[in-house]
Amino acid sequence: MWVFLSGLGAMAAFLAVIGITRNRVLGVKGWTAVWTSASLAFAGFIVAAFAFQDALFTEAVQGAAAGYVLSVGVHTAHHYVELRREVGSNAEDHPQSSTSPGPASERRRIRRRAILVAGLLVFHAALLVRTLSTGSLVFAALLVIPVGIFAVRLVAYGTRLASLPEADAPAT
What is the pTM of this model? Predict the structure, then answer.
């Protein structure tokens, strides 16, 4: 249990240090680079834990995963509270930006995000299959949630992409 709690505490402390909700040291680009690097390194630890099957390492990584999820949950709640404070009582009514992306820009963004979500879907589905094969039904039930969310998100991206007007063809 202490290894799990150590992993949880270490990850939560690390994310607090790099500024999960209020970054006052780095610019947006630097902060994004640090977050991306940290996330990719953590994904590497998860893969290593599966590959090496070391009990202590796996327990520490599971604790770190809990710390990551806890920290991101706090981060998301923080933004939700800020949004409610700025907009009023209904967080669904967000102000429309005057610099809305054009259809071509939105298409590119959707395609990039769809690739990421498809990769996450494949990864979580593989984890789900592996978990089901080991007989861990509780963990498998938890993995059904992200698999479902990623599948629904891909459908939403496809629907939005189909609703965007086609890019204008260059005049010849």
Answer: 0.51
